[in-house]
Design a protein that fits this description.
By secondary structure, this protein is an all-alpha fold. The protein has helices at residues 23-55, 60-96, 100-127, 129-135, 143-155, 157-172, 176-198, 209-230, 250-282, 286-322, 326-360, 367-400, 403-426, 433-457. Helix content is 79%, strand content 0%.
Length: 465
């Protein structure tokens, strides 16, 4: 236990390249970057939860419809996420090497790529909204709700894509507070408009589920405008120059292209796995879809702790590797993992003890739905332990550019193991939606083992970005 809090013991003497800071200093540096990412993720998940609660006022079918649209929406986002993983890895390395010009070249090429990808996805998904919702298991009770919601969200996707890319570059230079504040303002706008537009308060039209979607799009648009201002400020490290948006930088594109394919593969494999997982649940019926939706919202809220550490640690590791200090990359990574584990234990206890209170906020229409959700939340609580560990290590590997391994582990665990085990437990064995969540727990545990093994091999330290 003492070794965990002695940074001198976290790296071998033969691997030390210079002075190793004390644990308190490392922890302070980690939390300085990590806590805004944690707060940001928590706010995003909190708004998602409030969306679900507010939509529940329309009825449980409307809530189920929003759950059905999540995988098509996340499928759009996964392409931008893949791009942003590559951008954060490159920006953090260039920032660590004190190369501001290269950082800004990466920003400009990233924005061009993001705009093109977002525009294509926006048109494609908006036009195919209804068949996509039918494919995801929408029933006659939910198809109209789901189609309306997905069409509106897809139509305004470009704002979400661009603000995510700007924030990814800001995180790469350690400016995680910027991303946090933009999301805070956007979330407040989203919640306020939800209240005005879903039920039609203060003279606004009662738009129902369409109002919830419009509120989300406007919130994302506000977040984009704030992000845009941050890269237009004359004293900012990241500086947007509009003329650079019309000039092709082949060298920077080559750097991005070196990492991007494996990032895309990683995200596509994960998303295919998640879609298969969602289909398995959705085809169990409206009760299972509803219960899975609220449990997934609550699990996502708790997952933000791990996601914050993953995002922050990716930037920190990139900085240390950019400085040519592999020893410090190991130290900072291990300290982040330790703190994350303690957070996971606290999260597990909270989810287990407060599960019934949290579920009641969604106003389940039947006792059976409430009881089913309570059982699922017990599984979700224990899932947070391997989930937090594996996700922080995933951030470390991505921050170092080891995206080929994360793509491989996603293929094995998320795309193959999770859907297969979930299907067997849901249908042949007959556990229903509970079987799907046990499948998720097994997937998270397997990725934890794979990631710990990869981290211990230290091959991630040798990758050039």
């Amino acid at each position: 236990m003492i070794r965990l809090f002695d940074t001198q013991k976290l790296v071998k003497e033969s691997d030390k390249q210079g002075e190793i800071p004390k644990y308190s200093k490392v922890t302070k540096d980690v939390m300085k970057i990590v806590w805004p990412s944690m707060v940001e993720g928590f706010l995003v998940a909190l708004v998602t939860m409030f969306d679900g609660i507010m939509v529940s006022t329309i009825g449980n079918d409307a809530n189920s419809a929003v759950t059905i649209t999540k995988q098509p929406i996340y499928f759009m986002i996964c392409f931008i996420t893949a791009l942003n993983i590559a951008l954060t890895a490159i920006v953090s390395r260039r920032f660590g090497a004190k190369n501001q010009e290269a950082v800004n070249r990466t920003l400009h090429e990233g924005l061009k790529l993001c705009f093109g990808i977002s525009a294509v996805l926006s048109v494609l998904v908006a036009c195919l909204a209804r068949p996509l919702c039918q494919f995801m298991g929408a029933t006659s009770n939910t198809i109209d709700y789901a189609t309306t919601y997905l069409t509106i969200i897809a139509s305004g996707f470009i704002f979400n894509g661009l603000r995510l890319t700007i924030n990814a570059c800001q995180r790469g230079i350690g400016k995680t507070k910027i991303s946090m504040w933009t999301n805070l303002v956007a979330n407040l706008v989203n919640i306020g408009l939800n209240w005005l537009l879903i039920e039609g308060h203060w003279g606004f039209p009662e738009l129902g589920i369409g109002g919830a979607a419009i509120a989300t799009v406007i919130g994302n648009a506000v977040a984009f405008l704030i992000c845009l201002v941050t890269i237009l400020l004359p004293k900012g490290y990241l500086k947007l120059q509009f003329k650079q948006l019309f000039i092709l930088d082949k060298e920077t594109l080559k750097d991005i292209g070196h990492i991007l394919p494996s990032c895309f593969i990683d995200q596509i494999f994960m998303r295919i796995g998640f879609i298969l997982f969602a289909l398995i649940v959705n085809y169990l019926g409206d009760d299972a879809t509803y219960v899975h939706g609220i449990c997934n919202d609550l699990n996502s809220l708790m997952f933000t702790l791990a996601d914050g550490f993953s995002i922050g640690t990716a930037a920190i590791v990139g900085h240390r590797l950019g400085e040519k200090r592999k020893d410090l990359a190991i130290v900072y990574a291990k300290v982040s993992m330790t703190i994350s584990i303690f957070c996971a234990i606290i999260t597990c206890v909270f989810m287990f003890s407060a599960r019934d209170l949290l579920i009641s906020m969604y106003k389940p229409e039947t006792t059976e739905r409430a009881n089913m959700a309570s059982i699922i939340m017990i599984i979700a609580a224990f899932t947070t332990l391997p989930q937090n560990i594996q996700w922080v290590i995933t951030g470390i590997l991505r921050g170092s550019g080891d995206t080929k391994f994360t793509a491989t582990s996603s293929l094995v665990s998320v795309t193959c193991i999770r859907p297969l085990v979930s299907y067997l437990l849901c249908y042949p064995i007959g556990l229903g939606v509970m079987g799907a969540w046990i499948g998720m727990l097994i997937d998270q545990a397997l990725r934890m083992v794979l990631n710990i093994w990869r981290f211990s091999q230290k091959k991630w330290l040798q990758i050039q970005v």
